[in-house]
Amino acid sequence: MRNRKIFVWMAAGFSLFLAACQSPKTASSSIKDVDDAILRNVESRPGEWLSHGRDYSEQRFSPLRKITAETVKELGLAWSFDTGTDRGLEATPIIVDGVMYTTGSWSKVFALDAVTGRLKWSWDPKVPRSYGAKACCDVVNRGVAIYKGKVYVGVLDGRLAALDAETGKVVWEQLTVDQSLPYTITGAPRVVNGKVIIGNGGGEYGVRGYVSAYDAETGKMAWRFYTVPGDPSKPFESPAMEKAAKTWEGEWWKLGGGGTAWDSMAYDPEMDLLYVGTGNGSPWNPHLRSPGGGDNLYLSSILALRPETGELVWHFQTTPGDAWDFTATQHMILAELQINGQARKVLMQAPKNGYFYVIDRKTGELISAEPYVTVTWAKGVDKKTGRPIENPGVRYENSPIAQKPGPLGGHNWQPMSFNPQTGLVYIPAQETDFYYSQDRNFKHRPGTWNTGVDFGIINQPPTALPTGHLLAWDPVAQKERWRVQYPVIWNGGTLSTAGNLVFQGTADGRLVAYSADKGEKLWEVVLGTGVIASPVTYEINGVQYVSVMAGWGGSFPLTGGSIGLPAPSGRLLSFALNASGGLAASKPSAPATLTPIAFTAAPGQVAKGSALFGQHCAVCHGIAALGGGGVLPDLRASDKAVFDSYRQLILDGAMVNVGMPAFKQWLTPEDVDLIRLYVLSRRAELTTRK
């Protein structure tokens, strides 16, 4: 018996020794083993990043601690991969079994060796370039999902594809939208209980939102939940739609309705509830969308659905009857908090409207809501009803009004993170405002933006630029604990770790690490291009890496060079302690040397051109022609030949292959000439500025 025990002990010790010596591929389960049980318990594989927010709760918190507040200063570049794009990169990479899966613009998928950055395979869905004209906010993609040996990606043109994780070959494809309508997909799918969940975008263009579930193995659709009601003369798809229709007025379905579920989701396995955030109304202006008022369910709402059937269990509407593009598609985080001495299972969200919500995730009951940025459109949130207490006149029904936040929101799609050790949420927050005014001459224009807001009246250079900051927020006390101020908005998502760290990329081209408890800057590297995506971290062979997709976008060849914007460079960068790889960072492009272009304008023509530009061009090319955020060209810097070709470019669709539609059904040649005069006037101001 004694010898048998010795043998058992020796065998057990030898097994542990073998396990310690194995390569990461054999020491961990393969991607084929990533099933529902693994996705529900990602802590069994702490060195990997298995789903969009790392786990179903979407906390974006890693327990890895080799990189700490003390060691982070030793980070160096381990490897980089050039994605070959000058468009924006927004994906969160997935890391499993030593392989990193991520996406670039036009929904292209990459599989990389996570240690070296070597490309294993790539898949190009070959989206027709003309489809980019349907994309509200560029031809971006936010990442993939994995499950049982397959990689799932939503494609810009509305397809959902399952790829073999080893080869990148297509296993199945499903068309999830009517491609005759301006639907797009930019969000990352999620896999829950063997079903791939995907939504879509297109609210500004006039579509009806929905979220769908597909069998992960076969691609067969399991269910579809519409987020707003359709034509009430036809049968309702569900009791939820019948209820929602009572909160709408007029003939909303003819304008689409909106409510697209284009980004955020989370899942609670214990309660078996799938949470989905929904978007703005179509058009934004409720006086056009639903004359007579109404809450317009389920716009700007958090929905709790049964993932098996798509049945609605509860909803919470953050902005009833939304008039301002205050989407609730911002990322949601599930956590357990001690509130008033009681453990509460909560859902947290910081949507565009400026209030931070803590909600009971079983019932949808509001626990608390406080402003996390400056809010002028409401004086607070009623704790009993959950409804915001609006200030007079903010619905701009009688006169224009300036208010905060604007449609860019106090927080946009860039993910926030939660650190259970500090109890803080780290938000890419921003101070924005907007001048809302009714479009008194609104006509529905299929195939382009239909907001019902008069952009022409606000098309003036801002007196002060909006600012951004990294905000550490205490969700229990509903108070700010610390902030790091940035000179610009549109900074990247956040990652927090057990090493007392918060990582964030910035719009001005840096990746920075701060202490999670105090917000002290501990490390930064200049990347040469802005970052809007969220970093991730993983560990292989005892080495912890921090990786991020870096690429805010650049200028098209259309222009003579961007003005003070980062140069085009779309890369995936991975950092590790004591790594010595040199960072071949792209340098910001030198300011273009512009010369005046002569033009003659009769009295009032520039003002008319300004109004037309604001109505038709500003949503992409920026208010007052200030540029499209590094993604679209600064029109003021165009070559003379471009100005001479305005009618062809704008009316005839000469740029349709890069996503600019033809405007000949909405603008006359004379309108285009006025727009040209306005942009030339803005160029003249730029060239005479000292």
Question: How would you concisely characterize the structure shown here?
Answer:
This protein has 690 residues and is of the alpha+beta class. Helix content is 13%, strand content 29%.
Topology of helices and strands:
Layout: H1 2-21, H2 24-27, H3 36-40, E1 61-62, E2 75-82, E3 94-96, E4 99-103, E5 109-113, E6 119-123, E7 145-147, E8 150-154, E9 159-164, E10 170-175, E11 190-192, E12 195-198, E13 210-215, E14 221-226, H4 239-245, E15 257-258, E16 265-268, E17 273-277, E18 281-282, H5 286-289, E19 301-305, E20 312-317, E21 332-339, E22 342-349, E23 355-360, E24 366-371, E25 378-381, E26 388-390, E27 401-403, E28 417-419, E29 424-431, E30 434-436, E31 467-474, E32 479-486, E33 494-497, E34 501-505, E35 510-515, E36 521-526, E37 536-540, E38 543-550, E39 571-577, H6 605-616, H7 618-621, H8 640-644, H9 646-651, H10 669-688
Parallel strand pairs: 1-33
Antiparallel strand pairs: 2-39, 3-4, 4-5, 5-6, 7-8, 8-9, 9-10, 11-12, 12-13, 13-14, 15-18, 16-17, 17-19, 19-20, 21-22, 22-23, 23-24, 25-26, 27-30, 28-29, 29-31, 31-32, 33-34, 34-35, 35-36, 37-38, 38-39
Helix pairs in contact: 6-10
